[in-house]
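Bench notes, afternoon.
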Amino acid sequence: QVQLVESGGGLVQAGGSLRLSCAASGRTFSTYNMGWFRQAPGKEREFVASLTWSGSSTAYADSVKGRFTISRDNAKNTMYLQMNSLKSEDTAVYYCATGGWGRGPSSWNYWGQGTQVTVSS
């Protein structure tokens, strides 16, 4: 079993930056692929970014490419999402996930509780 806890969300003005963290505990973090998803009110959960267990391969949604950066520190059992040039449409609850791969939420087995990101215009 893996436990995930997100942090770092908050209120930021458009054009600003935030860094989300996802702390993992339980089974060996360094052997798991990791991902970020988000869900805005009234919308389905959508893929944001993912990172292989080694960190050698990443994937991003087109809507965040060039603005967001996913990374991990296996020594700290933590994954990050650096979000720059934030837009109002980035407002959502952000979830980290592990134990899977791909852009569909159903492809991932373990989820955190989410952290709210609100971007004011």
